[in-house]
Amino acid sequence: LLARGAPWVLVIDNKHDPTLDLTKPELQESISEAMRLGCFYSWGGGPPCSSFSQAVTPPCRSPDFPEGLPTATSNMQEKMRVGNLLAAWVASLLVAKPRDVSFWIENPDGSWFLRQPCVLHALMSVPCHMFRIDYCRFGTAYRKRTKFARDLPLLQHSPLLCCRDHSH
To answer: Are 161 and 145 in contact (CB under 8 A)?
Structure first.
């Protein structure tokens, strides 16, 4: 989308507007259709890691159950359902995206999101590179190692990890 030669940015965040819930099929379909129609140069996102984080205690995902342990609490089962729904939609966007549309997806480095079977399969179908950063390299008081799957050429290939000249 262009306005006087400058690209527009579409931001979707249900924390600011509850109607912008990406788990809703109608919104997913609208965005998928806009992608098919060539409305985007690029897209990206950081899906919630509430059930994908390895810091979840007790663990709710494992190598044998990347989509969720059957023994997880009912509260965590709902978080896993939402996470899995978003993972499946992101995977469908990756597979259907036009070749000239670039993408990036981020999640914590050890997250289960980028290890979901549907996401792994989709990432194998597109040119893709992994890129890791530590947020402390950008001035945060914490490290928070994060992994990006992307095809954007502007992100360098070497990681930007903690240079250890500070404390967290």
So the answer is: yes
Rounded to whole angstroms, how far apart are CA atoms 153 and 155?
Answer: 6
Q: Which residue has the tokens 């930007």?
A: 160
pLDDT of residue 2: 42
* pLDDT confidence of residue 16: 85
Pairing outcome for strands 129-134 and 145-150 = antiparallel
At residue 30, the 3 state secondary structure works out as: helix
Distance between CA atoms of residues 102 and 88, nearest Å: 19
Backbone φ and ψ of 17, nearest 5°: -150, 105
**The model's pTM:** 0.87
Residue 41 has pLDDT above 80, yes or no: yes
The mean predicted confidence, pLDDT, of the chain is: 90
CA 94 to chain centre: 11
Q: Give the residue-averaged pLDDT of 97-126.
A: 93
CA dist., res. 145 & res. 7, Å (int): 30
